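Work Package 3 (structural annotation) set out to generate three-dimensional models for the target panel prioritized at the project kickoff. During this period the team completed the workflow that converts sequence records into discrete structure tokens, so that structures can be stored uniformly alongside our sequence database. As a representative example, we reproduce one entry of 190 residues exactly as it appears in the project archive.
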Amino acid sequence: MNKLFKIIVIVLVSVMLIVIIKPYVDDYKEHKQYDFTVETIDGKISKDDFKGKVLAIYFGYTYCPDVCPTSLSSLAQALKELPDEKSKDVVGLFISVDPDRDTLKNIKAYAQYFHPNYIGGTSTKENIDEITSRYKAYYKKVKLENSAMNYSVAHTSVIYIFGKDGKLKEAVTHFSNPTKIKESLEKILQ
């Protein structure tokens, strides 16, 4: 009987520890998955720099003919439709996956062309590879024969939206219209 009691106590304590510790482990795993450090023209930034703000991250490149401008415009339109007191709490981060061609100055200008709340950054290919891998994003250079551009970059088109607590709240696809993005932002800003 005494042995059975010890087993029951051990099981109960183990279950209680799992229930108590699991949220911390989950938070740690999510933080590691979505953490990043990239360069901007104004210095290095990391995901933790945006705590207290809603952060919308988009991976692309400045030479992108249509996909990047469409997604960045859709997010910008959603921001413009929010009241000023809400839109000031949202930051868009454009991370270039083409560091060979996109300079920090060009990335900043490109990002801010769409909205003043946008920041542009990039990093080394190795760091970008690691970040996109953890985000489950994809990009690949595609050689363009007889083109002055020399290559384009095939890439996923997703806006990753993080809440003020730094946790991923939604991944908005390229085909989402500004109204859908605005609704998502309003929900996250509540």
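The chain has six helices and nine strands.
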